[in-house]
Amino acid sequence: MATLADVVQALDELYPPATAASWDQVGLVSGDLAQSVGHVRFAVDPTLEVIEAARDDGVDLLVTHHPLLLRGVHSVATTHAKGAALTSLIVADVALYCAHTNADVARPGVNDALAQACGLTELRGLSREGDQELGLVGDLPESITLRDFAIGLAAALPPTPVGLRVAGPADAQVRRVSVLGGAGDDRFEQVRSCGADVYVTADLRHHPALEARQEARGGAPYLIDAGHFATESLWLAPAAARLATMLEQRGITVETSVSAVRTDPWDFLVGQRPEDVGQRPQDKESQ
User: Does the keyword Metal-binding apply (predicted)?
Assistant: First the structure.
């Protein structure tokens, strides 16, 4: 039986905490390094529902992409969600480990999984901060329309109620694609510099996205907001497999799984009909 120390050592090697952004909070959040670990589960967010499902399934260690305690808290009382989550972890004897921006910059990491979902080859870094790559750029095997690319990407991503938001003509031809899992509307300059036809990321705010489209004068790069949860959840399965393989090479066997709980915060979308996909409101009004 593995100990928590064994698994933490492997995770630290796969996703070195020193490579995380200076503002980030990664690594072991709760747990005793001497406790036994037989089942490790990966999830995007350490929500109460994720934690309770892990507890019910006999999970010993929960590895999440997003930190539970990113910003300072002054109480862990169960009257607040974070306090309730931490209390649930401790009472159930479930350890928590977070790999966030250190998993983003890892190779392979979050962006490799997103690039694979896009069908990209010839991958290279989108931008750099210090000695770390942020985002990736690659090419499709051949040019396709923006509509077909978005439809294919939607099929490769876990389904969410809101789906993908796309900015650009549906029939525009695209081949070079830049990707950045999670929030990425601070990288438009690098996206333009790399000659990308389309940028796949999430959490695109109104003003940065509008300015980016104005700078493009209606042309490339086109934008796809594929959702924060969807773009980062692709990392979970390959990360679980990498951990299991590394531990197996050390003579340690653990069960790994991926959380089935969808932690995307949105529940339904109103106002978009299937026949309107790829059309702007003014286009429909003119018909």
Answer: yes
In 3D space, the residue among 127, 163, 149 whose CA is nearest the CA of residue 198 turns out to be 149
- Tell how strand 222-225 and strand 255-258 pair up: unpaired
When mean pLDDT is compared across 43-47, 76-80, 148-152, 238-242, the lowest value belongs to: 76-80
129 CB-side CA count, 13 A? 12
14 neighbors 242 (Cβ within 8 angstroms):
yes
In a domain, 53, yes or no: yes
User: How many Cβ atoms are within 10 Å of 269's Cβ, its own excluded?
Assistant: 10
The domain in which residue 205 lies consists of: 110-231
The two beta strands, 198-202 and 222-225, are: parallel
**266 assigned to some structural domain:** no
Torsion of CA 8, 12, 18, 24, to 10 degrees: -60
Count up the domains in the chain and report the number: 2
82 Cβ neighbours under 8 A, 6+ residues apart: 68, 69, 73, 76
CATH of the domain at 241: 3.40.1390.30
pLDDT at position 128, please? 84
Annotated binding-site members: 65-66, 104, 228, 232
Could you list the residues known to form a binding site for a divalent metal cation, using ranges: 65-66, 104, 228, 232
Tens of pLDDT, residues 36-57 = 999 999 999 999 999 999 999 9
Strand partners, 121: 139
